[in-house]
């Protein structure tokens, strides 16, 4: 009887040991997995990489925005340069200086994006026609020639009227980027353009006596 009980105890002990060994093996495998190939550790770099890709990704709308806004800004700066010597109003001269100060750095930033994306940067002599579409609000060569010939009050009126149209075109382009673009920095710049140039449109209309 005693011998029978001893055999049962030994059998139970062996079974318990075997069960413990299986459990330990399973736990060990789980630990290896979590710290190696199948757990949280390897998924973290992937998540970070995905976040980084999202921060840096751009699409066709971003490219179109940059390629369109560069010649658009260049023409605005050209018009602003004329105001320095031809404008009669101190308010117009001040406004022109502000436009140039804001848009010159944006041209450099936009050009840098295109270069980093492997896209073409519009050439200096490129006008409103780029990549198969016309830039909204761009002045024609004839309009620019007329502005160059004007001076004093006549220049002020022509400059303000043309720049209102020019700004309205830029705001339209910026809103398209806000809606369709994916590159965060470009969308942020577009938002700044909408805000600043809308305010300047109001200011120019006031100088024209339209508000």
Topology:
Elements: H1 2-35, H2 40-56, H3 60-86, H4 90-117, E1 129-130, E2 133-134, H5 141-149, H6 152-180, H7 184-207
Antiparallel strand pairs: 1-2
Helix pairs in contact: 3-4, 3-6, 4-7, 5-6, 6-7
CATH architecture classification name of the largest domain: Up-down Bundle
Instruction: Tell me the series of helices and strands, N- to C-terminal.
Output: HHHHEEHHH
Spans of at least 5 consecutive residues with low confidence: 2-8, 17-55, 128-133
Overall morphology:
globular
The number of helical elements comes to: 7
- Beta strands, count: 2
Mean pLDDT: 80
Please state roughly what percent of the residues sit in beta strands, choosing from under 5%, 5-15%, 15-25%, 25-35%, 35-45% or over 45%.
under 5%
Radius of gyration: 33 Å
Give keywords.
211 residues; Ferritin; 7 helices; 80% helix; two-stranded antiparallel sheet; disordered N terminus; mainly alpha
What does this structure look like?
The chain is an all-alpha fold and 211 residues long. It folds into two domains: 2-52; 58-207, Ferritin, core subunit, four-helix bundle (Ferritin, Up-down Bundle). 80% of the residues lie in helices and 2% in strands. The protein has helices at 2-35, 40-56, 60-86, 90-117, 141-149, 152-180, 184-207, and strands at residues 129-130, 133-134. Strands 1-2 form a two-stranded antiparallel sheet. A hairpin with a 2-residue loop joins strand 1 and strand 2. Helix 4 (90-117) packs antiparallel against helix 7, helix 5 (141-149) packs antiparallel against helix 6 (152-180) and helix 6 (152-180) packs antiparallel against helix 7 (184-207). It is globular. The relative contact order is 0.12.
């Amino acid at each position: 009887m005693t011998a029978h009980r001893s055999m049962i105890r030994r059998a139970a002990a062996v079974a318990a040991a075997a069960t413990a060994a299986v459990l330990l093996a399973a736990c060990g495998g789980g630990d290896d997995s979590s710290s190696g190939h199948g757990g949280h550790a390897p998924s973290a770099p992937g998540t970070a990489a995905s976040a980084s890709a999202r921060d840096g990704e751009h699409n066709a709308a971003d490219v179109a925005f940059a390629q369109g806004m560069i010649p658009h800004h260049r023409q605005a700066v050209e018009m602003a340069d004329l105001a320095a010597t031809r404008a009669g109003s101190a308010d117009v001269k001040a406004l022109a200086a502000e436009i140039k100060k804001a848009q010159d750095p944006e041209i450099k930033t936009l050009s840098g994006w295109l270069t980093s994306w492997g896209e073409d940067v519009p050439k200096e002599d490129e006008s409103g026609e780029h990549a198969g579409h016309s830039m909204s609000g761009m002045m024609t060569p004839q309009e620019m020639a007329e502005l160059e010939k004007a001076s004093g009050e006549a220049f002020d009126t022509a400059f303000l009227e043309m720049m209102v149209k020019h700004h309205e075109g830029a705001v339209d382009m910026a809103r398209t980027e806000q809606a369709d673009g994916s590159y965060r920095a470009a969308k942020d710049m577009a938002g700044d353009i909408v805000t600043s140039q809308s305010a300047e449109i109001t200011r120019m209309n006031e100088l024209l006596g339209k508000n």
